[in-house]
Amino acid sequence: MLDRWLQPLIEDPALDRKMRFIAGPRQCGKTTLARSVLARHGSAHLWFNWDIPETRRLYREDTLFYRAAMQKLKQPWACFDEIHKQREWKNILKGIYDADGERLRILVTGSARLELFRRSGDSLAGRFFLFRLSPVLLGELLGRARPSVPPADPRNWIEGCLYPRHQGANSRELKEARDGFDQLYRFGPFPEPLLKAQTRFASLWRRNYLDAVIRGDLRDLTRVRDLDLVEALVALIPWRVGAPFSVNSVREDLQVAHATVKNMMRHLERLLVTFSLAPYSRTVTRPVKRERKVYLYDWTSVEDPGARFENLVALELLARTHLWTETGSDEWGLQYVRTREGRETDFVLLRRGKPWCLLECKSRRASLESHHLLFARKLGGIPVVQLVREHDVLRAKGREAVSVSAARFLSS
User: Fold this and answer.
1) What are the chain's domains?
2) What does the pLDDT average to over 221-231?
């Protein structure tokens, strides 16, 4: 079983009695993570899934049905999985929290519904913390230690990724990183197809996954009824990964209104099928200001090798910003930089809203283009990392710019 980097943050005693909500894309491992947390605290039997009729029956007979199972435990943990499918589920959780929250640690798992609930606000405000679980990251696949929050100087963070002191960079570890990266690139980040690592299984899984999201979650949570149109839109997205997303271009392809495309894209992002990055425009000359770049949580439908690689890196970086933010230290963000003339750096990491490090993706080793260094100077003299899909690349230009294989950099 994979060790997920989010688990220690969820179990942190500093969170005290707050409920822990775990949201993330469908089938990214939320239930497995919750079961692991419960098992570590001797509470494996306190997992209640609202998809199981027996759980619903127990609740109908006694709204505090879980109490009998927690009696002999000093500090029990319980997970209420898919409870959002029960009517008045927020009032149910509020009652459980108010009755037993001093002693019981409560996990609540669900897909995009929990993220939508957080955005809407409710009477549960102040009673929970929301954690975002991404699909599997390269370091998790390799069993590496969770990365700590980077130091103030990004150059020290970069050096730590290149030359990790706790594990070294010996040939065996580098080979594991290369093999793991290739597996992740080919089969995508979702646990089941990734660990199975079989092409036919992965293809069937992806088809069923999209059908469950579009014809299940989308239908249940929104007023969208033309699901065939949504499927047509999803089929167009892989061809637009890695470039600013043009709503007008998609509107013309689908022969629908501009507002219809924007509405469907908003739903897909809220349902965690896609995620998007905004352009960073401050201190940049003639910047692009509006068009976002759109990526997929499951990038295996992206056929262009360069775009698929960029999508992989985008998710890895986004997940790190979530992990670093959820430690409670600083607010982290991820955007991109592009001018109207088309000069672009794929990613800029933000710390407290300020540019902290630039990252660019390349399929093969190549010299760093001058506009990346120009952006770096304009953004406050921050360093640039060129991540290369090709293996066994490591070339530094002082402490200001480095070109390194993505497998090496992202695995540490």
Assistant:
1) 7-133 (3.40.50.300), 139-411 (no CATH)
2) 82
